[in-house]
Amino acid sequence: MNDSWTTTPVTADLLRGALELERTEHGVLPHRLPAWARAQCPGGQLDLPEAQPSGVRLALRTRATAIELDTLRTVVVYEGAPRRPEGVYDLLVDGELADQAHVTGGNELVLDMASGTAAETRPGPVGTVRFTGLPDRVKDVEIWLPQHEITEVVGLRTDAPVEPARADRRVWLHHGSSISHGSNAASPSTTWPGRAATLGGVDLINLGFGGNALLDPFTARAMRDTPADLISVKIGINLVGGDLMRLRAFTPAVHGFLDTIREGHPTAPLLVVSPTLCPIHEDTPGPGAFDLDALSAGELRFRATGDPAEVAAGKLTLNVIRDELARIVRQRAADDPNLHHLDGRELYGEADHAELPLPDALHPDAAAHRRIGERFAELAFAGPFAG
């Protein structure tokens, strides 16, 4: 380490996109849900994705030309499945992607594919990510943390002092599934919400939780209590894939979720987004499952296991959810002019699937993430989020 460098404690005013910081023996761990909310759904199914820092970034104003960031990552390894690509740190200078890097070391959390439970934890050391050659002028610098690696921030060193970046942009609060979380995206700032936020010139708080866009009341209350100028909720794929409720329960749950958000944000633009195209679940209910034949060949793919005939009894499909969300928004918009609806197939539809098919039959790839983000920016920030 260069002794002339400045060491700066990482505090909440230097981090964007987290709702809470937990002090650990190593440093700080960003959380995307507060502790009271996490306590209402204990266990790995939510604990893991909410601690993965999708959209969380250091936001600095500095003339530093070199930055070192010490982190302790926790990488998830699924037994019997291909290993995920290494997490990426994106460095943005004045809003433009300037560099990318990886970090070494860290812990490995081995999960059993069948049960989703932890089979083993392998400890590892703290690593360091370095960026050099930054422009020698005062600038805004963001370091986006890897969206699918739990990341404890241990230390920050720079060759010039840093202060928090200006907080003068509108805040966009978004909730969604693993697609919003950034599964299969190339890097944290190119998840579709990350890309849309950059194009829209807003500060993102991404509450996209892999497997956990389930209309949980605690998520709605966390959104209610989080200051925001623009709000969106993307609802559908996890409810179908998890086969968690029927239409009778779905409709009042959506109303309750929106009611709770409105308690804290009575007039903010609120955009309800229905599912993007996913052929396996368009007309076939869940539950979703791993395709074991593909897994035996070393590929990760998903399939739908429900019976389309059960839709008549209230089972959910993506088309059922799209129709009901559109109806709910029309009903509520009569008294709520700031409530809007977006059909997810406008972000990724049939033509997009023909060109950029879902590699695992469920999640968009990196190119599709960028396209969805660009479409959202065009449709939302020039529409209901204009201003």
Please tell me about this protein's structure.
This protein has 387 residues and is of the alpha+beta class. Helix content is 26%, strand content 27%. It contains eleven helices and 21 strands. It has helices at 35-38, 44-51, 178-181, 192-200, 217-224, 237-242, 247-264, 292-296, 318-333, 350-355, 366-380; strands at 6-7, 15-16, 20-23, 28-31, 57-62, 67-78, 89-93, 96-101, 107-111, 118-122, 127-131, 139-144, 150-158, 162-164, 171-176, 203-208, 230-234, 270-273, 288-290, 302-304, 339-342. Strands 1, 6, 9, 10, 11 and 13 form a six-stranded mixed beta sheet that branches. A hairpin with a 2-residue loop joins β7 (89-93) and β8 (96-101). The longest helix is centred in the middle third of the chain and has 18 residues, at 247-264. The termini are far apart.
Please tell me what the overall shape is. globular
Count of β-strands = 21
Main β sheet profile: 6 strands, mixed
Radius of gyration from CA coordinates:
21 Å
Distance between the termini: 45 Å
Estimate what percentage of residues fall within beta strands.
Answer: 25-35%
Helical content class: 25-40%
Helix tally equals 11
Helix and strand content put the structural class at alpha+beta
